[in-house]
């Protein structure tokens, strides 16, 4: 039996918070390493993701100093606390890695999505800029066409002089095709379209000149609208990416469930080791310690089965 005097001495030592002298700390550290069966395996010391063994040794030393274990069992429990702490820290790094991976790859994932037909669902700013550049070039071509057509019309030039402007005549055909119920089979040469408009639509050559000029305005407006649409697309992509990155600040459901289960398992081991250590130390100090309470987590729903 331990005497009352010895019990009181043990209590006073426990209240002091463990070993404080350098010599005492060295002894504690030696004991930790002596009984560190788990610690030898927990630290990743080589390869990618290598951890600093010195940091773990310092953690064990601090915990040994704080808890001042006596005997192999108490030292083992302190070591289990250190191991649990170390693994929880690793779980935090894993969570950061999940989030970092999601954020770093958000842009690539966004622009790599394809439709069922295999086309890209979202185009990059660089690709959109190329489209804008092309639209701007087309717009400038139609502006120059309008300027030149207007000048030729004022000079009284005959339509024959623009028969080689096949692109303009093709657009003119599309413009009047619905009005005069024309289809691709009726599409002919500029001369044939002119004769059709003269004889079947009662268009004068002057009206055909005006139609060419108005067509230039229509095409300029179309390309301007396309440029505006592409600019809006760039803004929408930017906003969508911002949303994706915000959503990526939390791991996906599967990864989060896995992480929480892992952390929960470690925390149970941590608190169990702390409780067991507290009980052993209180018992060693001669305190009355009630038996541990076991909780039955089975739930009775009241339904027969």
Tag the structure with descriptive keywords.
single chain; 305 residues; mainly alpha; 2 domains; rod-shaped
Overview of this protein structure:
With 305 residues, the protein is mainly α. The protein folds into two domains: 133 residues, no CATH class; 123 residues, no CATH class. The chain contains ten helices and no strands. α5 packs antiparallel against α9 and α6 packs antiparallel against α9. The longest helix is centred in the last third of the chain and has 43 residues. The two termini are 54 Å apart.
Task: Provide a compact summary of the structure.
Helices cover 70% and strands 0% of the residues. It has 305 residues and is mainly α. The longest helix is centred in the C-terminal third of the chain and has 43 residues, at 205-247.
Structural class: mainly alpha
Give start-end ranges of low-pLDDT stretches.
Answer: none
Q: Any idea what the radius of gyration is? A: 41 Å
The number of distinct helices, counting runs of at least 4 residues, comes to 10
What average pLDDT do the residues reach? 84
How many structural domains in the coordinates?
2
Strand-and-helix sequence, N→C?
A: HHHHHHHHHH
Number of strands: 0
Shape: rod-shaped
What proportion strand?
under 5%
User: Describe the biggest sheet?
Assistant: none
Distance between the termini: 54 Å
Q: Please bin the fraction of helical residues.
A: over 70%
């Amino acid at each position: 039996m331990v005497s009352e005097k010895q019990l009181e001495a043990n209590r006073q030592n426990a209240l002091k918070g463990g070993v404080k002298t350098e010599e005492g700390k060295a002894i504690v550290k030696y004991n930790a390493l002596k009984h560190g069966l788990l610690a030898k395996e927990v630290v990743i010391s080589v390869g990618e993701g290598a951890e600093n063994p010195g940091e773990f040794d310092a953690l064990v030393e601090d915990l040994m100093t704080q808890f001042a274990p006596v005997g192999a069992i108490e030292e083992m429990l302190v070591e289990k606390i250190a191991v649990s702490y170390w693994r929880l820290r690793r779980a935090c790094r894993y969570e950061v890695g999940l989030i970092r991976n999601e954020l770093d790859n958000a842009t690539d994932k966004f622009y790599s999505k394809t439709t069922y037909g295999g086309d890209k669902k979202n185009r990059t700013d660089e690709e959109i800029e190329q489209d804008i550049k092309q639209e701007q070039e087309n717009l400038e071509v139609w502006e120059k066409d309008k300027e030149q057509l207007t000048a030729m019309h004022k000079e009284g030039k005959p339509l024959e002089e623009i028969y080689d402007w096949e692109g303009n005549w093709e657009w003119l055909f599309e413009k009047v095709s619905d009005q005069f119920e024309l289809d691709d089979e009726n599409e002919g040469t500029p001369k044939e379209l002119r004769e059709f408009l003269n004889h079947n639509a009662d268009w004068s050559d002057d009206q055909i000149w005006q139609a060419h000029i108005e067509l230039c305005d229509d095409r300029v407006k179309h390309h301007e609208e396309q440029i505006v649409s592409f600019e809006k697309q760039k803004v929408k992509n930017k906003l969508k990416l911002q949303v994706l990155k915000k959503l990526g600040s939390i791991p996906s459901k599967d990864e989060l469930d896995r992480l929480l289960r892992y952390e929960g398992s470690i925390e149970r081991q941590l608190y169990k080791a702390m409780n067991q250590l507290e009980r052993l130390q209180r018992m060693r100090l001669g305190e009355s310690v009630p038996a541990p309470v076991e909780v039955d987590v089975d739930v009775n729903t009241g339904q027969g089965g």
